[in-house]
Amino acid sequence: MDRVDGPRVRVPEQRAPERPGTADTLRFTVLGPVRVWRGPELLPPGSPQQRALLAALLLREGRTATAHELIDAFWGEDPPSQALATIRTYASRLRKSLGQDTLVSESGGYAIRIDRGALDLTLAQDLVAEAEKARASGDRRQARTLITKVLGLWDGEALASVPGPYADNQRTRLEEWRLQLTETRLDLDLEVGCHAEAVSELTALTAAHPLRERLRELLMVALYRSGRQAEALAVYADTRRLLAKELGVDPRPELARLQQRILRADEELARPADRPAPAPAPLRPAQLPATVPDFTGRSAFVSELGGRLATAEGSVMAVSAVAGIGGVGKTTLAVHVAHQARPHFPDGQLYVDLQGAGARAAEPETVLGSFLRALGTADSAIPDTLDERAALYRSALDGRRVLVLLDNAHDAAQIRPLLPGTPGCAALVTSRVRMVDLAGAHLVDLDVMSPEEALQLFTRIVGTERVGAEREAALDVVAACGFLPLAIRIAASRLAARRTWTVSVLAAKLADERRRLDELQAGDLAVKATFELGYGQLEPAQARAFRLLGLADGPDISLAAAAALLDRDPHTAEDLLEALVDTSLVESAAPGRYRYHDLVRLYARACAERDEEPGARESALSRLLDFYLATAAGVYALERPGDRLVDHLEPTEHAGLSFGDRHAALDWLYTEATNLLACVRQVARPATLRRAVDLLYAALDLGESGANAKQYEAAAVTVREAARMCGDPRAESRAVMSLANAHQLAGRFDQADREAQEAMQLAETAQDLLAVSWAANARGIIALYHNRHQDGEAFLNQAIDAFRSDGNRPGEASALCNLSRIHLATGRTHSAISLARSGIEIYDLLGHALRGANGRYALGMALTQSGEFPAATGKLTEALEIFRDSRQRLWEGMSLFRLAEVEIASGRPTQAAQYAESALAVLRGIGGDWRRGNVLTVLGRALAGIGQTGRAQVCWNEALGIYDELGSPEAGGVRSLLTGISTR
């Protein structure tokens, strides 16, 4: 039977129990080897018989064991003639080690007197009791945490190597208890929604304990909730077949009822049986922005909306939608009302800015992912599609009382998936448009303030004394602001910051230019006029910063990037940005990060077009591009020391950031991913095209990781089209090569091959050695996937020559490792191993950890085929750890897949199934269908190896569907596997 271990060990290594006490405190363990600590010191174990006596006394938990009981425990029905003397000898030795007060003699026997917390077994019992109380009270997450802690107390087999019939019986009892606790923990996993994570462990446990029906039941539920209904039903079929064969019985009624529920696609079964218990702070979201301290007026609206929200405690789900032009105070009102309504929603408040007025409104599936995380859903449990996420979101809110504030919505279609849909919850929506097509919504049209409310808001900001002395001038000011709250706040804030100004001075500044505001009804025009008021009061340097920063396309901007765009040092840039924050023209999204309201950004750009020369605008974006390119190149060089790519990039005039270590560099790259790729798309025009393409090259990790693959591909398409229009073969070759790489990583090998062929032709025309070598390397690996091994070998040899001509040692190593895989595919295992080792040698010499992991991946594959399974596991495990550390999810998943192949070849299907399940979880949504088909094929082989042929058949049928759709030759092998199952 396979040992039960795998890619992720849940139970931590046993250590000396950490309990309060003095340095002389004794502590004991029996859930593993029988051991004794005095403080931090591990005492000598003694003979096996001495440990047997200690175990027998410890397991009695302070009760006295008579001499007769101890003799029976040691020798059963056949004790030696000197048994009593032997017991006394062992007891004497133990007393010397433990002390007179610990091992006591009484009533013709012996007992150990210790606190409950000094023995791991009693500690485990107490923790289990706490867990049962937590579960009974509904706090399942706490119960799960406690049971996990209990299981962590085990260190292998209980009473390991302790002789005697009593020890044998207790070992069996403790092992059964451990298994029951594992079932309890897995049951709690399912109750709190961690079904996807549970599948791998349950697969291994059902293989180790094939007749244990409770484990099969849990596995069926976990698979069903993971969207794998056919596999769940196959588990039942496998179980029924096994029980009939081994025991001549049918599955228990609970299992049969579960099968029927799965056949009916029972919606109740698809979610945890009970809602999660009240969770700690991170699971009770409190995302509302701060309400403004000087909130003014709007009393009728506050009362109306507050009353609607209060109805959510009844039998309906309340939805209110607030509409109005930009700057009218929709968000301020909604946030204020939401804060007042918090007592009605004790389970939390969710908030999102949907960016509906911008060019790229927030995608509902992205927002749902964020909401699900805030509600405590693990990343691995979040589905891929919009419909699945919306369903899980509604399930997560079921039974809770949560307020959802959806700010700045684009239209009703954007927000429908975000509505809770259950009694007790409520949604508050703000938008520039009226949501007339949002069924059941209470619509509120927010107009400008009344003159009295506007004057009151102005007074609260400026001060009663200054306004009271010039009331008429103040009325002129708020009238010039069109009674729009945002405009009033901007004007009042400027006046409050200038103690030498009078209200009349401000009124005079506004009188000449914007008297016509009262007559303007078009929302955008009114908003633009409002922003003009604040903009006109900025100092020249502040106004320039406001205009230029609005040019960048990203959702926000870091201080360092802003400094580069403005061509100012960071301290000066920060002063300018904070001044803009003070005037409410810019928001501080987080320390060191800034963003515009989407309408303010449009206005800022209009100002830039009006007030800046075209050259100044282009220069600002060019400096931003320089910053991103120089910094990304530094990250690339830190991740890939010795790689010549950075030497082939376009030069930059402005420096980027530098980092002390690769983790900080990667943090920057992934934090700035959206802004960086937005910059690539924005500057894909003649003057900056080459640098834009090179920024894609330098940010290669964003495409390979899987996390930003779609954005990366979209940017590659944009720069390719721009390069074609410009007639720049060098830029086009690099852009097409980036796109080919994106297709290859997504498993679209035909498209990747066409793009790589075009890239090579363009690179040769442009005499771009970098693109030539990359394209040849890519065509080689794509040919491998197409089983065109002769072509692949030719391309890779060409790549090796090109990399060597360029002095690019890491590139040479990459091609050598890829060539290793060609040799492996054509049966040249010995040379495949040699080539991979040559590549690794180069990588290690250069300190190239990430690409060294690719080399170890290739070597692990070759060692697997040569039958050197322990060595293969070692290399693939090294690669796996590096890929995880480098956030390369695609290659993390593929390494798990290759480890599954090793375990299959080694005859350990249980471990193979665990690795394959983990690979499926990591590769969800990335890597393409072909790679998923490969993992499913191996998972099916592993499941067949542990007797779960029904599940295996489901996996192979899914893989066959993938291969047939793609026209992949692997389909033939899967058909053979299915035929083999059907003939058994």
Give the gist of this structure.
The protein has 44 helices and 14 strands.
Report on the architecture of this protein.
It is a single chain. The chain has 984 residues and is mainly alpha-helical. 62% of the residues lie in helices and 6% in strands. It contains 44 helices and 14 strands. A five-stranded parallel β-sheet has the order 8-9-10-7-11, sandwiched between helices. It has a three-stranded antiparallel β-sheet with strand order 1-2-3, with no helix packed on it. Helix 13 (364-374) packs parallel to helix 14 (386-397) and helix 36 (809-825) packs parallel to helix 38. The longest helix has 27 residues, at 165-191. The chain is globular. The chain starts with 25 loop residues before the first strand and ends with a helix.
SSE blueprint:
Blueprint: E1 26-29, E2 35-38, E3 41-42, H1 48-58, E4 65-66, H2 67-75, H3 83-98, E5 103-106, E6 109-112, H4 120-136, H5 140-151, H6 165-191, H7 195-208, H8 213-225, H9 229-246, H10 253-263, H11 299-310, E7 318-323, H12 330-340, E8 349-353, H13 364-374, H14 386-397, E9 403-409, H15 412-415, E10 426-431, E11 442-445, H16 451-462, H17 464-469, H18 471-480, H19 485-497, H20 503-511, H21 523-536, H22 540-549, E12 557-558, H23 559-566, H24 570-582, E13 587-590, E14 593-595, H25 598-611, H26 614-639, H27 662-671, H28 673-682, H29 689-698, H30 700-705, H31 709-726, H32 729-745, H33 749-766, H34 769-785, H35 789-806, H36 809-825, H37 829-846, H38 849-865, H39 869-885, H40 889-905, H41 909-922, H42 928-945, H43 949-966, H44 970-982
Parallel strand pairs: 7-10, 7-11, 8-9, 9-10
Antiparallel strand pairs: 1-2, 2-3, 4-6, 5-6, 12-14, 13-14
Helix pairs in contact: 1-3, 4-5, 5-6, 6-7, 6-8, 7-8, 7-41, 8-9, 8-10, 9-10, 9-43, 11-12, 13-14, 16-18, 16-19, 18-20, 19-21, 22-24, 22-25, 23-24, 23-26, 26-27, 26-29, 28-29, 28-31, 29-31, 29-32, 31-32, 32-33, 32-34, 33-34, 34-35, 34-36, 35-36, 36-37, 36-38, 37-38, 38-39, 38-40, 39-40, ...
